């Protein structure tokens, strides 16, 4: 087994397993399957009573099948803690191939997380002062590149040598309003792959460290990771995953020396593809260099407004995760995302006092249901000066989106000449995407002038619009 495991790996750990409050042990195999499940098969060659003796309570009853902590001593990785475990079948399975074979009694469990490197006796003990996360594609989002190269040539322009110099870039440290400490860490690996030392591999790596003022539990950090995954998914316009997670624990020893231990963390999450295409900065919505001066503001607003924005983001990210060729579903998801954005951000409080310049809003807001066309017009007029660089006829755009949303939802017998298909639907969807991204980036604190400058230089829009 390789030394460093990632959440994209499938792996198995074998050893003995026991509960914190009981000295009875069982042998078993722990299996981690990327994107699927964490399962423990504990077993005993003997009577079913051996399984019963494993528990200090009658856990085999269907209504008592959940166990907070199971501890393990594994052959491959040493100390292991399983978090939030539950008996799959609320019982045991007994196998006996013949009368001469010993009875194999098996007790299967699923778990929510694996913690490698330490035994935690109680659920409340599982706290960390910070976590270090490696996200997919983060190296492309924040390409620090601390190296400098200088090539040398003679008078005949013949290459004679190279000077390679590397200085580790400074870490980026941001204190957020919610108490989180957001640190961007840079490190490098230099590996010699050749016995004759002719081949060297130099890799710069970017990771994030998220710290807190007081130690927080595992659920808090997993929730924080999920929010950051979505922030980077928005930034890079592709699904982003936490590839590795390591937790830091501060421990005081008897000699009063403070030691920070590192715990490897694996938890149930979306499946990480074996191969994923990396984005170049020009293919992203924004990179670190694009928003470095505004990063604190964006992250503060992202965390502060996340619960408000989450249902909207769910709809928008369906477009990111779905194949680009699925024009109809992408169109419908964006139509609903724009409708939901208006409803959750402005809703029935949309009027002149809240910055709305669409005079029809106050009249429409008195009705129970605000039509999509009016929600779109409201958003368009709020961002009129900027959006007209992409959508020249705002009224026609609102009517076209509303008509096609109704058609692709109900498939009414409407005028077929108004129905957008193929390339026309694709272009309409991209205009909607532009509007949504403008609204969302503005909502989390990015200046609209900067948004337009940002989007105008990106390949995702340059192909379609003259901005």
Task: Describe the structure in your own words.
It is a single chain. By secondary structure, the chain is an alpha+beta fold. It folds into three domains: 11-120, Thrombin, subunit H (Beta Barrel); 127-282, no CATH class; 305-462, no CATH class. The chain is 32% helix and 29% strand. It is built from 14 helices and 15 strands. The protein has helices spanning 48-52, 138-141, 218-236, 288-291, 295-304, 306-321, 327-345, 361-364, 372-382, 384-387, 394-410, 422-443, 448-456, 459-462, and strands at 11-18, 26-32, 38-45, 66-74, 78-87, 93-95, 104-116, 127-135, 147-153, 159-166, 172-175, 181-192, 200-217, 242-252, 258-267. A six-stranded antiparallel barrel has the order 1-2-3-7-5-4. A hairpin with an 8-residue loop joins strand 6 (93-95) and strand 7 (104-116). Helix 3 (218-236) packs across helix 6 (306-321) and helix 6 (306-321) runs antiparallel to helix 7. The longest helix has 22 residues, at 422-443. The radius of gyration is 28 Å and the shape is globular. The two termini are 52 Å apart. 28% of the residues are buried. Mean pLDDT is 84; it is low at 59-64.
